[in-house]
Amino acid sequence: MGRMYTPGKGISKSAIPYRRTPPSWVKATPEDVCEQICKLARKGTSPSQIGILLRDAQGIPLVTAITGTKIVRILRANGLAPEIPEDLYFLIKKAVSINKHLERNRKDNDAKYRKSLVEARIHRLIRYYKTSGQLPPSWA
Question: Dihedrals φ, ψ of 133, to 5°?
């Protein structure tokens, strides 16, 4: 199947393990993992970076297998979740950087086109998050 914003047609993707139980070599307890997640979130680390840090530094392959809940749900239960979802935040950040680029390079037509594609993705995500209740209906 073709991609929406790039010319690629590849099917390569990662897959999570079928088994929902943690591997036998993981010695971390759910309480320790939740504590580490909250500690990293207080430092200002984003949820995806928390998962990467736990995987690379602590040897925790999948937080969901150990704790039974996702990282964002753990953060939300402790009042540490970001106010807007992470993917929406980074799309907005990308649109702002494209706007800054267009202020300096007004004739860059490709950047104008890419900006419209990014803004369409932003509007699509906002619509999804409003209907799923993750953003309030009055959110701009």
Answer: 85, 5
State the pLDDT at residue 10.
80
Amino acid 139: pLDDT: 86
Interaxial angle between packed helices 86-104 and 109-132, expressed in degrees from 0 to 180 and rounded to the nearest 10: 160
Q: By the 8 A CB rule, do 80 and 70 touch?
A: no
- Under DSSP, the state recorded for 14 is -
Closest alpha carbon to 27 in 53, 59, 50: 59
Low-confidence ranges of the chain (pLDDT < 50): none
| Six token digits for residue 86 | 């992470």
List the one residue out of 108, 15, 129, 127 whose CA is nearest residue 62. 15
Q: Is 63 helix (H, G, I), strand (E, B) or coil?
A: helix
- Please state, in angstroms and rounded to a whole number, the distance separating the CA atoms of residues 101 and 19: 46
Cβ atoms of 26 and 66 within 8 Å: the answer is yes
Q: Please count the helices (runs of H) and the strands (runs of E) in the chain.
A: 6, 0
Specify whether the CB–CB gap between 37 and 74 falls below 8 A: yes
- Enter the pTM of the model: 0.81
